Amino acid sequence: MTETKVYQALSALGIDIYPISAPRDAPYPFATYFIVSERKKQDIGAGIYAQVQRYQLDIWAKSYAHVKELKEQAIGRLVELDATQISVQDLFEKEIEVYRELIQFYIKE
């Protein structure tokens, strides 16, 4: 299962990883991920022969330097999974004063 592989790869970052959302009291840094969309390719005779999932990974940290370091590590792990179309956006959540790296990518199963 692709989601399990993604979770296992991200667990190597040494921070807590949560599907969809983190608990309110989760200590920083942490990451959340979810499947944005899933596309299945199929053939009438062969059934489903390929599946592509688009993920969003958010890394949350109290310092800009730390979130950038974790982003680089995460991208390295995603490349090892053959993730494609990796895009990154830097964000700062003013209300909670936390830096966030939003990473979107595709995985083909």
Q: Describe it for me?
A:
By secondary structure, the chain is α+β, with helices and mostly antiparallel strands. The chain has a single domain, classed as Phage minor tail protein U (Alpha-Beta Plaits, 2-Layer Sandwich). Helices cover about 25% and strands about 50% of the residues. It has two helices and five strands; from the N terminus they run H-E-E-E-H-E-E. Strands 1-2-3-5-4 form a five-stranded mixed sheet. A hairpin with a 3-residue loop joins strand 2 and strand 3. The longest helix is centred in the middle third of the chain and has 17 residues. The protein starts with a helix and ends with a strand. The model has no long low-confidence stretch (mean pLDDT about 90).
Number of strands: 5
The SSE order reads HEEEHEE
> What class would the helix/strand composition place it in?
alpha+beta
How much helicity do the residues have? 10-25%
What is the CATH-assigned architecture? Answer: 2-Layer Sandwich
Question: What is the CATH domain class?
Answer: Alpha Beta
Largest sheet: 5 strands, mixed
Helical stretch tally: 2
Helix and strand arrangement:
Blueprint: H1 2-11, E1 16-19, E2 30-43, E3 47-61, H2 64-80, E4 84-93, E5 98-108
Parallel strand pairs: 1-2
Antiparallel strand pairs: 2-3, 3-5, 4-5
Write out key terms for the chains shown.
109 residues; Alpha-Beta Plaits; elongated
Task: Give a concise summary.
The protein is α+β, with helices and mostly antiparallel strands.
